[in-house]
Amino acid sequence: MSRGAQILVVDDKQSFRFMVKGYLEDAGYQTNCAAHGVEALAKLEQSPFDLVLSDMVMPEMDGAMLLRKVRSLHPQLPFVLFTAHGSIDSAVAAMKEGAADFLLKPLNQAELLVVVERQLEHTCLQVSYNRMLESEQEKFSFQNLLSTAPIMGRVLAAAQKVAATPRTTVAIFGESGVGKEVLARAVHIASKQDMTRFVAINCAAIPETLLESELFGHVRGAFTGADRDRQGKCSRAEGGTLFLDEIGDMPLSLQPKLLRLLEERTYGKLGSDQQVSADFRIIVATHRNLDECCQQGSFRRDLYHRLNIFPLTIPPLRERREDIPQLTEHFLNDFRQHLGKALPGISQAALNLMLDHDWPGNVRELRNLLEYASIVTNGELIQPEHLRLQLAPLDHEESDAGRVMLNFNFSAEEFSLDAVNRRVIEWALEKCDNNKSSAARLLKASRKLFY
């Protein structure tokens, strides 16, 4: 973005404008000039610029006033002031209003080019950062949570409602791999909170001796090795969301402190007597049944009730099989981009096999399975042999009595006689390694059945 960038120079002295324009164009920048603030605003309306360089003292509209106008119309546009020694205080005051930097007159060419390059690089980084945030927001928004299953639709509708109350505690329940953190991030984004203020901590992954410090932070000298103050996850979540994953695995010794955080909205760093106010939403998630944990004595009943204000239970994938085709296409689109492969799609036989699978790993298992299949395919449709799934879900068994038993799984919408016939034909072809003559003999039918 630096070389070739469009720069607007504003100064009431023609000789100074000519000099600055020459310095910048020699360095490879595209430069336009304005003699006063009104002309500068008109040029900004006509063409996009990457940087404004303006004198501080000008008739009619000075640099500070021009800065305020530019900030209101183009808040992301960097603005640098030229100032003489006598008006440094005014330049410093202008920086407090949003000026990116200032340069002293008489102007030093090398210093000018260093400041210009620095501001353009910073703008380029900011643009990239904003694009990344927008991409993350789109990735985890409710619009990107795919489901046609009524049972999942009710969960998403409830989650969207609680997103409107940014301090309500939310508890997300569900098996491993169903997408509990994905839903938590969607609630966070829909709450219009800072994307960077979603702070996650896995209560099962951190040793009990470190979890309190990781969560609340500590002060210097709190324990052996604590040679400086350290912020915890609570501090970093200020103004956003603290996500406590696997809350059912939180040690009993730490649960009273979490209860206090929830009830009083305050917490204390380890080793400190001072209480810090907590201004963030708390979302917890677990694959455990917390009521049973309370009965077993591994989880406090009062904490359970305090967490269970707004429960959301994500159904396992086997209870919403109608989502599998849509999720499959969504993941394949991701892999087309990340792997740089065409990936024509998935065969009906492979899709049927996936529809029959019980998915103990849920959506995570589905994604991992499709990633593997996407890597091993070579431009053809994904077939059953690419999926690393056992054919056992079809439950074909031949007993000593020579009996054949088939078990197919259909949603109510897809079930029909034609669908059953297709499954039987696919099973026969799979059983006979796609040999149509053998499959016809197995089914005691004409070979024409397969055409």
TrEMBL record:
GO molecular function (one): ATP binding
User: Which SUPFAM superfamilies does the protein's record reference?
Assistant: CheY-like, Homeodomain-like, P-loop containing nucleoside triphosphate hydrolases
**Biological process annotations from GO:** phosphorelay signal transduction system; regulation of DNA-templated transcription
Q: Which residues carry this modification: 4-aspartylphosphate?
A: 55
Q: Which residues form the Response regulatory domain?
A: 6-120
Q: Name one Pfam family in it.
A: HTH_8
The residue ranges of the Sigma-54 factor interaction domain are 145-375
Question: What keywords does the record list, in alphabetical order?
Answer: ATP-binding, DNA-binding, Nucleotide-binding, Phosphoprotein, Transcription, Transcription regulation, Two-component regulatory system
Q: Which InterPro entries match?
A: AAA+_ATPase, AAA_lid_NorR, CheY-like_superfamily, Homeodomain-like_sf, HTH_Fis, P-loop_NTPase, Sig_transdc_resp-reg_receiver, Sigma_54_int
From the Swiss-Prot or TrEMBL record, give the protein name. DNA-binding transcriptional response regulator, NtrC family, contains REC, AAA-type ATPase, and a Fis-type DNA-binding domains
